[in-house]
Each structure stands twice: as C-alpha cells, then as structure tokens.
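Memo to structure team: turn this sequence into structure tokens by end of day. - J.P.
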Amino acid sequence: MNEETGTAVAETVQQAAQVTVETVAEVTQGVAKETRTLLHIDDLLGYFTWANVMHVATSVLALLIFYVIYRLIKRFLKKRALVKVQPHTAVLVSKTVSYVFWALMVMYVLSLFGINLQAVWGAAGVAGLAIGFAAQTSVSNIISGVFVLSEKAMKIGDYISVGDVNGVVDSVDLLSVRVHTLDNQMVRIPNSAIINGMLVNYNYFDKRRLVFSFPVPYEVNMDEILALVSAVPASCPSVLQDPAPAAFYDGFGDDGITMKLAVWFNRADFIKVKNEVYIAIMKLCHAHGFEIPFTHLDVNFYDAAKSAAAKAPEAKKAAATRTTRRRKTESAD
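Reply from structure team:
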C-alpha cells in the first residue's frame, strides 16, 4: 500500500514538473517571438546578406574617400587659394565649402536608405518659407551680409565707425560684423545696420589727413604767423611731405582769427602725429612770444554791507534834494 502511494506521488510530481517545463518553454518562446517582432530582428537579419554587407562596405569606403577629398580641398584653399583674398572672405569660403560637403554627405546617406530626395526637397522648401517669414530680420541681415562682403568696404583689423559705435573689426560674417572698442568691449553690428547706415573706415586708405585748428590773436602780424605755422610740419618726423601740408586762415572768431594746419600721415602714425604737431605749435608760440587767445572770465565778489554803506550818502543827498524841491513847490503855491 505504501509503495503504491509513493509511486503515485512520484508520478504526480514528475507530471507537474513536466508541465512546468513545457509552460516555461512556451512562455520563453512567446517572449522571444514578441521581442523579435518588436525589434524587427528577423527583418534586420534579412538585410545581413553578402550583397548588403558589400553594399555597406562600399558606402563606408565612399564616405571615407569623400572626406579625404574634402580635407584636401580645405588644405589647398587654406595654403594656396585663400592666401590672396581678405581674411573674412577666406573664412566665408571655408565655411561655405564645409556646409556644402556636409549637405552632400547627408543627401548621399539618405539615398543609401532609399529615401526619396524630391520629397525631402519639397519639405525643405515649405520649411524654408515658414522659417523665412518667422525670421525676416535674420534673412535681411544675411542678404545685407552678401552686399557687405561683395563691396569689400572693410576687412579684419580695420578701425570703423557705424553710428555711435567705433572699433576694430574682428570678424565679418553673413549675419553681423563683430568689433572690439578701444576700451576692449565686443560689439555686434547687424549687417542691415551697416547697409542702411553710414560706414566710416579709417583704415581703408594707407594715408590720412588731419586738420589742426586754433585761434590767432588779431593784433599779431598775420603774414609772419602764416609763415611760421607753415614751417611746423617740417619739424614733425611723422608728417608726410607728399602730399604737401597746408596752412591757411579760415574765418574770424570771438577770440581771434582761426588758423588751420592740414597735414598728411601714414594711418599707423595717428597718435604720434597729433602729439608732434601740438608740441611743435606750443614751442612756436613760446619761442615768438605770443599766446593762443582764449576766453577769460572775471569773478567779482559782492559785499552787501559795503555796498549799502557806500550808497547811504547818495541816498541821503537824493532825499534832501527831493525835500527841498517839495518845499519850493509849496512856497510857490
């Protein structure tokens, strides 16, 4: 009896274990199947054929060749072609080459996956219109940047003035021009402001002219002063003699007649020329004993007590005079 009971229990346990194993196997197979379906593993494995592997290898090799060609073009432009152009033009050309290369690479990769590029271009056109309406200011700056670059009105290192901003050009891009002021602050000037405003480039020409203006006393010998001032540029080493300097009178002022001295110099000697000419003019004045006229201001201090004491006798005299006149008038009546 006990043996029969033990046998039955063993068979029951064995059957339960077998059912459990079969259930686990079915669940495992189901999970694996769902996972393969969800991750498209079967589809991916279908792509890993010898032909597809060769196609991917060829594509990767083509991308590497294109990248090597791109780097060679960049190196050639940097060492040979861009040396002859202005720095900001070289930067713009380099960026354009980079953008074109990466755009071609993206289109090539998309074509490898069988994506219709015409549909992409159509979507890009619609997106471009939307972006254009949303960013009209940026588009205006880009168009203005093309004109700024084509006019070649400035280059990196030039000292320019646009409106109230003065500074040295650090970069010329499609959207803006960046300058740093004399107190070393970076200022970004939109290209539209340059096109619509007035741009002054102090470094565009190699030579510049500077005009010094100062009054001369009316009582001096004007011919002598004119001859003396005309000789000032000769004592200034940084002043150019060609074009020749010019000294002339330019109107009558409140303090004296206005004398002007115009001199030419190399743009790098701006500060040096100002110092040399001002020092030479002051030495001229000291050497010949005349001073540059200027407005004088006399200050008189007012003392109320002294003023009242000084006016008291006059007031008494005036009062006595009025009294005498009044008495004479009464006597006549």
